[in-house]
């Protein structure tokens, strides 16, 4: 946590291996071992500050797409679907499973629902660690 412009997003980008420009020096270790990006990318999730989703798909389709791309091949179809259902329940999106994502501020999901979808898209990959950049921005006190 820090003030605006302190570098919180930059730090998370570097830790998650998403920073491609600029000058980065030093070393990153995870539990005392040097971080290997190809391994770290498979075990981590990253919820960006902006909730970017395809407006033409449903909540369920967004989660299926993420799960199929990111879960290991040995996870069978039935287990993937079961896991998606558990995550939708966890983030309270089950009742909206068939809702179109839509465009922000125009139609579709509310800001709160978009935030929960962003988190769910990362959780269906079953990460060991998840980075969340301002997950409560744009939410009221109750939703946050």
UniProtKB/TrEMBL annotation:
Molecular-function GO terms, alphabetical: ATP binding; ATP hydrolysis activity
Superkingdom of the organism of origin: Eukaryota
InterPro entries: ABC_transporter-like_ATP-bd, P-loop_NTPase
Domain ABC transporter: 1-137
Pfam families: ABC_tran
Protein name, as recorded: ABCG4
């Amino acid at each position: 946590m820090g003030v605006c412009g302190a570098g919180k997003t930059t730090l998370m980008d570097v830790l998650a291996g998403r920073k491609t420009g600029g000058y980065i020096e030093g070393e990153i270790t995870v539990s005392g071992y040097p971080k290997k990006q190809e391994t770290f990318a498979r075990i981590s999730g990253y919820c960006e500050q902006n909730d970017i989703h395809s407006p033409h798909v449903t909540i369920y389709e967004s989660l299926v797409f993420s799960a199929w791309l990111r879960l290991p091949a040995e996870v069978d179809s039935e287990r993937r679907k079961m896991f998606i259902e558990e995550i939708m329940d966890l983030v309270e999106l089950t009742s909206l499973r068939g809702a179109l994502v839509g465009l922000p501020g125009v139609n579709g999901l509310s800001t709160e629902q978009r935030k929960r979808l962003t988190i769910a898209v990362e959780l269906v990959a079953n990460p060991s660690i998840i980075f969340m950049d301002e997950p409560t921005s744009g939410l009221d006190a109750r939703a946050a």
